[in-house]
Design a protein that fits this description.
The structure is a single chain. The strands form 5 sheets. The chain has a 4-stranded mixed β-sheet with strand order 3-4-6-5. Strands 7-10-13 form a 3-stranded parallel β-sheet, with helices on both faces. A two-stranded antiparallel ribbon has the order 1-2. The chain has one domain: Ribosomal Protein S5, domain 2 (2-Layer Sandwich). Strand 8 (about 140-145) and strand 9 form a beta hairpin. It contains 5 helices and 13 strands. It has helices at about 75-90, 115-130, 155-165, 210, 220-230; strands spanning about 15, 20-25, 35-40, 45-60, 65, 100-105, 135-140, 140-145, 150, 170-175, 180-190, 195-205, 215-220. It starts with 12 loop residues before the first strand and ends with a helix.
Length: about 230
């Protein structure tokens, strides 16, 4: 009984048989270099957009970070590791022979380590599946090991920055389509010749979509977000 076997090689390999030599060409996998806009808040508390790039190449399953422009925090490392793990689970792809290279192309000092987690995951999935990211959509949110998208701060400021980048849809974690603010209100009472003043804080609610001028959609997990971001 004869057995037919298939072999995959990363470099050209020559196999000799009794009759002839067969040259097996290297298997080159088709991956994509992708970039995604990540909303953040700068040191002045204003919204900003940072460009993140993810490159997938054949390798040894390494996770690499271009540290030239990256303020590399421990929570950023955690977000990248989680993003890779979730992307692997979502796509069902084995990344043991794929190197992933993460690069921040603009001022990275404004990135909050974990708040870019959802965007990191989206970009990783796009890179290994050779997909294109919809530039009209921007997402904010942490990424949890089970693929859930967690809450972040400064939603309104990030929404404004996304609007300024001409995005038409802003994805936020579940329950964060509105933002609670506490506004100071000064009250004074006249008691005889003396005026007593005190500051009270009243709760107010901001409709992110209405006040920032951009459509807002709440998403609970990465699979839901992928429907809006990948083409």
């Amino acid at each position: 009984m004869s057995v037919l076997c298939f072999f995959y090689f990363k470099s050209s390999t020559k196999i000799s048989t009794e009759n002839e030599s067969i040259v097996l060409e290297p298997v080159i996998l088709n991956y994509k270099n992708v970039s995604i806009n990540v909303p953040a808040v700068n040191e002045e508390g204003k919204g900003a957009i940072v460009k993140l790039k993810v490159q997938a190449i054949q390798g040894e399953g390494r996770t690499l970070v271009n540290v030239d422009n990256l303020l590399f925090w421990v929570d950023t490392q955690f977000s990248i590791r989680t993003a890779k793990s979730v992307a692997e689970n979502v796509t069902k792809l084995d990344l043991s022979d794929i190197d992933l290279i993460y690069t921040i192309e603009t001022d990275a000092s404004v990135i909050e380590g974990q708040s870019a987690g959802a965007a990191l995951t989206i970009a990783t999935v796009a890179a290994i599946q050779n997909k294109t990211i919809n530039k009209n959509v921007i997402i904010t949110g942490t990424i949890l090991p089970d693929g859930k998208i967690g809450s972040v701060g400064s939603i309104f400021e990030k929404a404004k920055a996304s609007k300024d980048m001409n995005a038409t849809l802003f994805l936020v974690p579940q329950g964060q389509g509105t933002q609670i603010n506490y506004m100071p209100e000064k009250k004074c009472d006249q008691i005889g010749p003396i005026t007593y003043c005190a500051t009270e804080y009243k709760q107010g609610k901001i409709d992110i979509s209405k006040d920032a001028g951009i459509d807002v959609k709440e998403v609970s997990d990465i699979n839901e977000a992928l429907k809006y971001l990948l083409t």
